Amino acid sequence: MTAPVPDLYTRAALVFGKTDRGGIAWPYGVADPDRSNYRGPNGPTEYEERLKDRRIAQRVVTEWAERHGLKKSTTGCCPLWLLRRVSRRCTSTVIPCTHYGSSTPDRGWLDHLTAWTKNGKPAALTSAPYSLPASDEARLTWWTQEDPRLHVARGKGWYGLSTTQIVMWRSDLLAALDPA
Hints:
5 strands, single chain, alpha+beta, 2 domains
């Protein structure tokens, strides 16, 4: 007899961790919608539709992370973090972050950022920008030329809302990583 498959909540808790209130620490835009935003005559129907959409996204991102052995990081911030041996946030005094620092050349393409570790090491960044201007495309190309371990893929991801999922990963830790 095979063991029962854990439910989505149990599996997601292993990938994303939990909030102080015991909920799942989902990536931005994947958490359950706030019921208070759906008042009015069509509110319950709109809420149920949005909840159904979020449940699909939650399943997709959880299965994607499980398939690749990834866990969400709370310290990941930019490609410089991704190149570290251990998961620690960039500091402005030692290594200026290229997402949150004073010089932010990666801010545009890192919209809706989620950082990922594999076996405790920085392994991937995913983002979901609404657009990718030529300057962001050039920056992604620059990173892959700067360090041959860095690879980039684009596609449709879990965030939705007409965004493009960008996946940047370290090929020494993950042979291939497609968008979810």
